Amino acid sequence: MKLAIKLAFKNLIGAGLRTWLNVIVLSFSFVIIIAARGILVGWDRQAKNDMTDWEIGGGQYWNVNYDPYDAFTLTDAHGTVPAEFQAEIEAGEMVPVLITQGTLFNEGRMQSVFIKGINPDQTLLELPTHKLDTLVEAIPAIIGSNMARTNKLELGDYVTIRWRDKNGTFDAADICITDIFTTNVPTVDVAQVWLPLEKLQTMMLMPGEATILTFGDQNIERADVENWKLMTFKALVSDMEEMIKTKSVGQSIFYGILLILALLAIFDTQVLSIFRRQKEIGTYVALGYTQREVVGLFTVEGAMHAILAAVVGAIYGIPLLVWLANKGISLGVSSSDFGFAIADTMYPVYSGALIIGTTILVLLATTIVSYWPSRKIAKMNPTEALRGKLQ
Amino acid sequence: MEDNLIIKTHDLTKRFPMGKSEFTALKGIDLSLDKGEFAGLIGPSGSGKTTLLNIVGSLDKPTEGEVIVLDQSIGNLTAKGAAKLRKEKIGFIFQSYNLLAVHTVYENVEFPLLLLKIPANERRKMVMDALEWVGLLDKIKSKPPQLSGGECQRVAIARAMVKKPSLVVADEPTANLDAANSHNILQTMAKLNEDLKTTFLFATHDEKVIGYLKRKIYLKDGKVDKDETV
């Protein structure tokens, strides 16, 4: 084996440009696969961090009637905050949020919105709720930058909202935009208006009630409480993980094609080698190699493309990937286009498992495509091979 | 087999398929070669000399008859057994040298010793000795494309001789060389035959080679036509 490796290396280096072309194409596969996977891992991590910080904390309790995908459930999706959570709420470890549907009237247009009540003193979520503590002539409200842009709202604007209270009675009031925050999490931004919790409870005639309760520590063992369903962190991010998985499949097809192209080049080289190097094969056999050993030598030669590609890929790939990880990749899309947390700039994350896994994948694939044509050697007649006759 | 007997064939027949029929290249050859012989198979193209050489070199098998080379029955050898015989006891010299182009002269000569897993120190000495025999010590770092035809063939001789084989088979070794280089090569081989008592078996129709042979085995239409010892 040692001799085969030594010989294979010599032969590869001796083949010159042909080897380097294959190696460079294969190294692209390495770098692109790792870069693409790194973006997905970075996206996943960033999205989870953003969602944790801005919306879901360490998990939530949902009122049993609450379904975020069905706005009509909001009429019934509220209940008194259970007494056992009071201590956590007072300690700032849990944040109740009351949610209702409403309509925003601005510049003669109507916009359906979710009106959400939250305690201005909370610090569990990144939302700048302290701005709800501003003294203004209307109800203080904070909105996200997407919401502001789509509704042409600016800081200090007054605008009318309409809602239906617990009894189904329509009511309306003016709100004053006291802060416009920027976030990567569209579910706290797009079509959302945040008001002080107590104010919304009063408006809705629902004192002491909430729709969801967000808690901070996901490691505490929790159970369902009467009328409140426990939504773990894992359950809350599952939709986003599914979406990333879908993106991952799409990307896999892209880099799969790239890998196939590189492997095709190696396959082609191997097939050509076997025809062009018949005399050499015959010589190996004459000198005492078995045909099986020659097959092994050619397979090692092919597989060595992947090793050289890993080295070449590392030479230009490591600085490139490190630069990307530090500078990030601007996606040129808004988070509101995706419907879940996505930053304008993505910072890829490259794990050891990703790098080792990719290297093994490419090495295995290269070895298989190298072995395949090499099997032909075993069927060669050595006396014909020595004369370089095409077989 | 007698101690001195290197090759013995009895009723050796070799047939090759040709379309639906068969072509008989060797027709019942009976031959024996002793240790230290400097012999040649002589004959025109198609007389069967290369076929006989390939069988003796364990690169091919007889269709019928018996071939014993260095106490091994070629017909009964497995592929692995034949490879072992070639690796340990037979050296090959080819018409077109068959050197490994990407390897240096030193590495080409070293190759058979690597297959034999000879330790590095011993290997180095053996390679240097072999290169000294053929007068190529000043070319150890050159690669075959940088050498002349005569030098290439001398590297091939060194490669064949480095492991001190019992038998060297040489197929038209001077066919690609000019007269001066041919004589040089042949003198080298004749000297090695004298010094090391290695048995040489040539396949040739080159008069220059024939002049050096101590035994001339003439083949005609797959049969031994004449067997002369000088």
Descriptive overview:
The complex is a heterodimer of chains A (391) and B (230). By secondary structure, chain A is α+β, with helices and mostly antiparallel strands. Chain A has 2 domains: 2-52 and 239-386, no CATH class; 59-216, no CATH class. In chain A, 51% of the residues lie in helices and 19% in strands. Chain A contains 11 helices and 13 strands. In chain A, strands 1, 3, 4, 5, 6, 7, 8, 10 and 11 form a 9-stranded mixed β-sheet that branches. A two-stranded antiparallel sheet of chain A has the order 2-9. Chain A has a two-stranded antiparallel sheet with strand order 12-13. In chain A, helix 1 crosses helix 8 and helix 6 (233-276) runs parallel beside helix 10 (352-378). The longest helix of chain A has 44 residues, at 233-276. The mean pLDDT of chain A is 88. Chain B has 230 residues and is of the alpha/beta class. Chain B has one domain: P-loop containing nucleotide triphosphate hydrolases (Rossmann fold, 3-Layer(aba) Sandwich), CATH 3.40.50.300. Chain B is built from 7 helices and 10 strands. In chain B, the strands form 2 sheets. Chain B has a 6-stranded mixed β-sheet. In chain B, strands 2-1-4-5 form a 4-stranded antiparallel β-sheet, with helices on one face. In chain B, helix 4 (120-133) crosses helix 5. The longest helix of chain B has 18 residues, at 179-196. At the A-B interface, helix 1, helix 7, helix 8 and helix 11 of A face helix 2 and helix 3 of B.
